[in-house]
């Protein structure tokens, strides 16, 4: 499938319609089709090789998350939503990756308008091992592109720079392959007491 067609399919797969300003009319979208098995790397920002994003946000468990405090690890920043089926499908894999890999951490950024109590109820039905924060859709984190579709995942290297970016669902294997490609360990040992 050509790259452009794959991108159109991924964008249409999990997007909530948003009101458009009167001056800009939405373009015709191709009908959504099945999501491909492997995620398509999204366009990297022009400064992706040097971008060192900041992220300070309150999580649903009442704690503060500061991306800068996680230097030295690979951090997966995953934009998602409760209504996005591909997002829900990747959550168990991301949770397992966070639990089983000492060098990898995940943070989920719920990109939707949802009350904290409703998110807590959702997370009781769909528990994950990593922290979740609710993002203000009108004021998303400035150092990350506004998601054009969900899920949208960034891989942040131990140096704090963006190592890779994916539009569409990812698996633990996709993340570990991207880590290896960026110079990280190809296969990491599991955390003490767990299988790899």
TrEMBL record:
Keywords in alphabetical order: Cytochrome c-type biogenesis, Disulfide bond, Isomerase, Redox-active center
Positions with biased composition (Low complexity): 17-45
Transmembrane intervals: none
SUPFAM superfamilies according to UniProt: Thioredoxin-like
Chain spans, region Disordered: 17-53
Annotated CDD domains: TlpA_like_family
GO molecular function: isomerase activity
Residue span(s) of domain Thioredoxin: 46-184
Subcellular localization: Cell envelope
Protein name: Thiol-disulfide isomerase/thioredoxin
Organism ancestry: Bacteria, Pseudomonadati, Pseudomonadota, Gammaproteobacteria, Lysobacterales
